[in-house]
Amino acid sequence: MVPHRWTSEADKNETEEDEVSPPAEETFTIRHLKQGATGAVKTWPAAEVLLEYLVRRGGLRDVCDKIVPDDGGSGDVGILDLISPPSTPLSFENLQSELKPYNIVELGGGTGYLSVALALALNSIDSSTPVRRRARLICTDNDRATIKNMRHNIARQPLNMNMNKTVRIEPLDWGSDVGGEKFSKVVTSQFQEKTKKTQLPKEERPAEPEDPIRLLSHLIASDVHYGKTTLEPLSTVISAIKLRNPNVAVILLLKERSPNAVADLKEQIEAKVQCGLELEEQSRKTELRGFLVSVRDVLHRELPDMKMVEC
Fold first, then answer.
1. How many CB atoms lie within 10 A of CB 298?
2. Which helix (H) or strand (E) holds 294?
3. How far apart are CA 23 and CA 46, in angstroms?
4. Pair 7, 18: CB distance under 8 Å
5. Each residue of 54-87: pLDDT tens digit?
6. What's the predicted TM-score (pTM) here?
7. Weakly modelled stretches of the chain, pLDDT under 70
8. What pLDDT score does 157 carry?
9. CA distances from 99 to 32, 123, 130, 209 (A)
C-alpha cells in the first residue's frame, strides 16, 4: 500500500506532524517546520505521486525497459497516465528481480517523506517473498534547518523500521563536484556492500569502486524546479552525476511553474552531458551515446501541469 492518509496537529515546538499510513499497514510521523525552507514546511503532493509511480507503476525500472510511445528521437514521449489503473498491476516480485539493493539518492528531500515512505514500501516485505530487492537511500538537501528536521524525522521512527540504517540524511549542494570527496565517502559508506574482506582470499575480495557515484542505481526528486533560480544548479548536478555514472536512472516529477521551465531543464542537462563527453574517455562516450532526456506530461486528477523527467 502506498502512503495516503494524513492527519495534522501542531506541537509546542511550533511544528506540525503528519501521521501517514505506509505500505506495511503501520504508521509513521513526519514533522514539518512552521517556518523555513519551502520543502521543510509541508510535504508537497508531488512526493506522494512520485512514490506511487515508483512503487506501483514500474518507475524503478530502467528507462529503456519502460513502455512509452515512440518519441521520434526528440525525447518527448507523450502522456503518463496516473489516473487509470496500471494495465498490469505490479507486485514486489516484479520490482525485485535482483537481490542487489536499489541505491537511491533523493535531491531536495524537504521533510524526508519520500525517502522514508519509499524505504518502507521496498523494505517492509513479507518474509515469505522468495526474492527481494531492498532499498538503501541517501536523502539530501542544502538547508541546515531542513537537514536537522529530516534527521529528526528519521530518528523518531520505530526501531523495528530500522530507518537509521536504511535512510541516511546528508547535505548536498547542487554543484558539478556532487558534494566532493565528503559526499563520495558518504555514498561509499551507505551503498558499498558490507562484505568482511578479511574473511575472503585476497583475490576474491571486492574491489573498491573507481568512483563511488557509480554505486548509485537511482537519482530521484519531486517538485524541486522553480524556473530560472534552479535551472543552472539542478541541471549541473544531474548532468555531473550522469557523466560519472551513465547507468544511474534519473527520475524527476516536476511542476511546470513557468513556461518552458522543464523544457529548458531538459535542454540544459543534455547540453551539459554532451559538453562533458568531449572530455571523457571513449568508454564513457559509448555508454552515453545518443543521450536524451525524456519528458512526459503527467495526467493526474489533483496535480495539473506536472511533468515526468527521466534519463
1. 23
2. strand 294-299
3. 18
4. yes
5. 988 889 876 555 554 444 444 455 788 898 887 6
6. 0.84
7. 1-26, 62-77, 87-99, 125-132, 195-209, 280-283
8. 87
9. 35, 12, 10, 19
Residue 175: its pLDDT value, please? 95
User: Which pLDDT belongs to residue 203?
Assistant: 61
Nearest CA among 112, 118, 108, 123 for reference residue 153: 112
- Measured torsion, CA atoms of residues 287, 254, 133, 311, in degrees rounded to the nearest 10: -10
253, 214, 217, 219: which is closest to 237 by C-alpha?
219
Sorted by where each starts, the structural domains of the chain and their CATH numbers stand as: 15-190+206-310 (3.40.50.150)
Is residue 93 classed as helix, strand or coil in its secondary structure? helix
| 250-286 burial code (b ≥16 CB/10 A, e <16) | bbbbbbbeeeebbebbbebbbebbeebbeebeeebee
Task: Give the other-Cβ count within 10 Å of 159's Cβ.
Answer: 7
Amino acid occupying residue 155 = A
Tens-place pLDDT, residues 84-124: 887 655 544 444 444 678 999 999 999 999 999 999 888 87
Q: What amino acid occupies position 270?
A: E
* Whole-number pLDDT of residue 234: 98
Per-residue pLDDT, 302: 87
Q: Report CA-CA distances (Å) from 152 to 146, 190, 268.
A: 10, 19, 35
Q: Are 27 and 21 in contact (CB under 8 A)?
A: yes
Are 135 and 118 spatial neighbours (Cβ–Cβ below 8 Å)?
Answer: yes
Q: Any long-range contacts for 268-274 (C-beta under 8 Å, 24+ apart)?
A: 268/231, 268/232, 268/235, 268/239, 269/235, 269/238, 269/239, 269/242, 269/293, 269/311, 270/75, 272/235, 272/236, 272/239, 272/240, 273/239, 273/242, 273/243
> Between the CA atoms of 110, 115, 116 and 122, what dihedral angle is there, to the nearest 10 degrees?
170
Grid-cell match 537511500, residue found: 137
Distance CA 54, CA 104 (A): 12
What's at 306, amino acid-wise? M
